[in-house]
Amino acid sequence: MISKTYNPKEIEDKWYQYWTDNKYFSSKPNPDKEPYCIVIPPPNVTGVLHMGHMLNNTIQDVLTRKARMEGKEACWVPGTDHASIATEAKVVAMLKEKGINKKELSREEFIKYCWEWTEKYGGIILNQLRKLGASCDWDRTRFTMEPNLYDAVIEVFVDLYNKEKIYRGYRMVNWDPQAKTTVSDEEVIMKDIQQKLVYIRYDGDEGSVTIATVRPETIMADAAICVNPADERYQHLIGKKVRIPLINREISIIADEYVTMDFGTGCLKVTPAHDQNDYALGEKHGLTIIDILADDGTLNEKAQILVGEDRFVARKKIIKMLEESGNLVKAEDYKSTVGTSERTGAVIEPKLSLQWFLKMKEISEPALQNVMNDTIQLIPPKFKNTYNYWMENVRDWCISRQLWWGHRIPAYYLPDGTCIVAINKQEALKIARNKYQLFALSEQDLTQDEDVLDTWFSSWLWPMSVFDAFKNPDNEDIKYYYPTNDLVTAPEILFFWVARMIIAGYEYQGKYPFKNVYLTGIVRDKQGRKMSKSLGNSPDPLELIEKYGADSVRTGMLFSSPAGNDLLYDEKLIEQGRNFNNKIWNAFRLIEGWEVSATENQSQSSAKAIEWFKSKLNKVVAETLEHYSKFRMSDALMSTYNLIWDDFCSQYLEMIKPAYVDGNSLPIDKYTFDATLEIFDTLMRLAHPWMPFLTEEIWQNIKTRGANESICIAEFPKVGHVNEEILSDFEILSEIISTVRNTRNAKQISPKEALPLAIKTSNKARYEGLAGLISKLANISGIQYVQDKTEGVSFVIKGDEFTLDLGGNIDIETEKANLQKDLDYTLGFKKSVESKLANERFVQNAKPDIIEKERQKLADAEAKIKALEEALAKLG
Question: What does DSSP assign to residue 648?
Answer without folding.
Answer: I
